[in-house]
Amino acid sequence: MSKIKACIFDLDGVIVDTAVYHYQAWKRLANQLGFDFTEHDNEQLKGVSRVRSLEIILAIGGVTKAEAEREELATLKNTWYVDMIGKMTPDEILPGAKEFLIACRDAGLKTALGSASKNSMMILDKVGITDLFDAIVDGNKVSAAKPDPEVFIKGAAELGVEPSECVVFEDAIAGVEAGKNGGMKVVGIGQPEVLTKADIVLTGLDKMTLDLLDTL
To answer: Can you give the pLDDT at residue 203?
Structure first.
């Protein structure tokens, strides 16, 4: 076995895909404000905080709001989003994710979640895989956004391993950079031409094996 002792997973786009629910909630908000928000527009929000996402959407619609009202709008969007993810089922786990998590644990590797989402626990509970993680570090435990490596560094600390002994699984450019900034190996989930800083890039965890970990 290689020196890898732990795998740290981002949630969105790696284990489940809640991006569709974020998009539907933002689109509903834009429509309520009197303009449309397309899937093409939505590309600008990938890996971006809720506050910054709202700023981008208001700019797209040419709408100006005072700070208090912006906070209300962000909260409203989140309420709709939480309502949608509250209906998630185990069928929404991405292909191979649960199987690879189980394989890691069977091989004696530690597993952690490293996600900016404050709704991580709810999502993991809904899809039934909370018990496959030794540590869960989410938006309730960290203050710095990726590409700051705080979420992954905390994950390693909670697992009791060194950053150099961890592999991060990420689908966003900022997330890949966060893993590298933390001194970790990174497996990108997505397109090689986009996630250029990852050590390897796969289309999903269904393509990941323990043997591949040994090559990192």
So the answer is: 97
Which residues belong to the annotated binding site?
Answer: 10-12, 26, 45-50, 53, 77, 115-119, 146, 170-171
Q: What is the pLDDT of residue 43?
A: 85
| Fold designation for 6-17+90-214 | Rossmann fold (3.40.50)
Under-70 pLDDT residues of the chain: 1-2
How is domain 19-85 classified at the architecture level of CATH? Orthogonal Bundle (1.10)
* The token pair that represents 29 in the structure block: 């908000």
Question: Which residue ranges make up each domain of the chain?
Answer: 6-17+90-214, 19-85
Annotated binding site for Mg(2+): 10, 12, 170-171
pLDDT tens string 128-145: 999 999 999 998 999 898
Taking Cα atoms as reference points, which of 195, 206, 137 lies closest to residue 166?
137
